[in-house]
Each structure stands twice: as structure tokens, then as C-alpha cells.
Structure prediction request, 510 residues.
Amino acid sequence: MDGLKRASAAIVGVAESDLGQVADGMSVIDLMAQGTMRALDDCGLSLKDIDAVFCATAQARLSALAFAEYLGIDPPVLGSTIVGGSSFEYHVAHAMAAMAAGLCEVAVIAYGSTQRTVGRKQASQREINPYESPFKPFLPATAYALAAARHMHEFGTTREQLAAVAVAAREWALLNPAAWEKKPLTIEGVLSARMVSYPFTVRDCCLVTDGGGAVILTSAARARTLKKPPAYVLGCGQSVTHATISNMPDLTTTGALTSGRAAYQMAKLGPADVDVLALYDAFTINTVLFLEDLGFCKKGEGGSFVSDGRIAPNGALPVNTNGGGLSYCHPGMYGLFLLIEAVRQLRGECGARQVADCEVAIAHGNGGVLSSQATVILGTGATL
Amino acid sequence: MPALKTSPLASYLAYLEQDQLAYQYSPQSGRAVFYPRLVCPFTGSDSLEWRVSKGRGTVYSTTVVHPQQGQPYNVALIDCDEGFRLMSRVEGVAPEQVRIGMRVAFRVHRPGGDEPPQPVFVPVEA
Prediction:
């Protein structure tokens, strides 16, 4: 197996749809289409160039069909792999594979959610699991809380250290005009907020917003002819360790270990080469776990690693510079926004939150309850 | 694989009705399998044996859910001594008093109505 080829494709267009609380009656496909038109405008391509469509949403069972119908296109490649919030990182690898097979040249990867306007109960259908549901876990928060409790037990991680993740995300969000949260947050503010599932208060948990967007991926050769500098896909990796939290082999080690290794190997890079990280922060423990499993600190040291502003603005390691799922936007499946922010950082488009000399970015997606992990490493032309 | 008249879930619940916590054992891997299923996730074999747990275990992780309405309650993951893990709750102690590493014993909770019995746990002396 040869696998995907480093830098054979690049992300050339990125855009959010409307975010936060969108206009009444907007559909998830409206948001996908809005994101797609903006992303096409971002790279100078048009709808007629698209020959591959990938999308995922919790609110349309046959979303790829609905999206193709809406756009009036019959693309030769259509995919709607849905593995939770990391679906879009999977789509990047699938689109790249389809390009390598000669099936397509310009892929759109799109997402939409109106969970805030329609309510979470409407937005995601509750599935009954006879081995878990009787105990009324408040999912997904309870699953991540169990992982956090175990991390605290094994390594002495504290609630204050987890809160530092939320505070850093908020400080970044205050530099991002598109972020939902506009007010400062303190450690004490996180700890004293309404308890959801111990050790998490509501401030350890992601936002519940609407939102969507799209990214456009094309071959490296075509990417170089377009409006903006390409963000080359240097590495991809995926891992599935379980679906339900009671079947996660080790609550303190995620599949990011495997997905990260695969991505680093393909990229011929390591953690020390990474300039900016976009980590799927549905809950504060996520950032801690992924920093460990992706090799930025040792297992068990994530709590102290995130303390003292290390991942906040002006810290040593810029993480979730858009404000993350905790403070910028979280419509339920956040993975697409990781790619959008990583590309913008590589292009130098991030204004007040721009990371200096940004050449390599990680977008790490997470889906389910720490279940599906997918790492995408992106780089500028300097990394070729 | 032959046609089945009883699903893995129905077999499991039938044991619970008899106050027994059942799990499966995979002879090829020498490991316990839970939740009950048709294929061993360790070997790919379809030969799985039903066994009944002695009902002792250790809390692997625990949380207290705080619903917006109603009282806080415990949700825990229990590692049974036979080597399988399940979601449950620890009763007979305040939800925030449940600790990782606590030794617990199985008992059946019968919610009544149409709801099937549930495996829950209570603390025991270590």
C-alpha cells in the first residue's frame, strides 16, 4: 500500500457560512451552499469546476443527495462519511484519494447545522443504547467527563488546569471578530459556572451554536494557478477506537496517538515542526488529551502543560486561535472549522490573532465520544 | 452462522431477570467480551460462551450528572473482576461520594413498567 502522497493536493478555498444564530428558516443545506459559494469566491473557482462533493450534518440523513440536488450538480464523486465531528478531516483524505485515482480534480467539503435555532433535541436524534441509556448519561458531556475524571485520578490533573484551556480559548476568541463569545473569562469563572457533569461546568463544554462552511480542495498543480497561496495537505491519519464510552479501551489515551503518527509519517514532520494547532475542543479535556497524544507533551503532563497561558495568545504554543469550539463556534460537528482556521493561519489572514512565521498547521478532528480521531497536517509552499 | 431465535440482548436481559449479570467469554482470546454480541472483537471468531459474573468490580471512572431539572445522579464505568467493563451507577451512597478504585457489588434494579431490569452496583468493603 503506497497510501496518499504528501502535498499532492491542497486546500485553496475556505469560508464559514453564517454563524452563531442564523436567520429563521435557514436549512442546513442553505448553510452548506452559502459556505460553498464563499469558499469558491475565496479561491476564484465556480460551481461548474466542482466534480466531487463531500458533506456531513446531523440534520439530513442523505445530506450529499440533498446538497447535490440543491446545487443542481451530478458530481462523479460523492461522499458523506459521517463519524461525528471529525468527518471533515476524513473527507480530506477521501477527496485526496479520489483525486489520486483520477476521479475528480476539485472537491468541496461542506457542513451545516442549525442546532441553536431548532434546538438540540430537534437537531440530533437520540439513539437508544440498551447498555448505556438506562443510566441516563448526559451525552456527549458525561462521556468526556468520565475521561476527565480518570485523567485527574491517574495524573493529578486539576479542574483549574482544565479551566485554563477554556480561558485560553476565550482569550483567543476575543481576538476573533467572528467568535460567539465576546466577554473575558477567568479560571474562577469556569469553576463557579453551572455544573453539568462533574468535573465539567458549562464553561468546560463547547458552545451550542448554528453554523457551517466549506473548504475547496484541488490538485497541487491546479492549486498553484489560483488566487491565494495553497495550503498543501502534507499528512493525514485516522483512527477509530470505539463508538461508546464504555468501550473506550483506555479513557486517558485516544486514537489521536495513531492518527497523529500516521499523519506525521506521511508529512515527514514531527510535533516540533508544527507552528499552530487546531484541536477539536468540544470539552476542555480534549485539548489536554490531544496535546499529549499528538506528542506536544508526555502522557499525563497535559494539565500542567496548558497552565500559565502556554496555549493562550502570547504563549509558547498557539492552540485554537479562532477561540475553538469552547468560545468561537460549535454547531455540533466542529471539524470543518479546524481546517478553515489552519488554512487562514498559513495564509497570514488572521489579523490580531495571526501567528508569526506560520508554515505548518495541524487540524485534529474528534468525533463521537473521543471515538473517531483524524489528523490533517497542512503546510505552505515553504514546506515542499 | 445459523439463524438465531434469541438476540444477544434478549439473552443478556433474561439473565438479568434471574438476578445474574451475564457476559461473554472468548475461548480463543481468553478474554471477556461485553456488551454481548455475535462476533468476538479480539479474534473475529463467532464462538462466544455465556458466563455469569460473580458480581464484584471496581469503579474505573465516575461522574455526577447535574440535570437542569431534578437531583444530581451518578454515572460510572465499572470494571468487573472477570475483565469486562460496563456503564452503570453506584447506589447506596451520595453520587459525589463514588470514587475511582472503590470496590462495588452488583445488584439488579427493576425500574418497573415496561423497562427491563438494570445492573447497578453498591459499595462493598475492599
Observations:
- Residues 139-200+235-383 of chain A form a domain with the Peroxisomal Thiolase; Chain A, domain 1 fold (CATH 3.40.47.10).
- The mean pLDDT of chain A is 97.
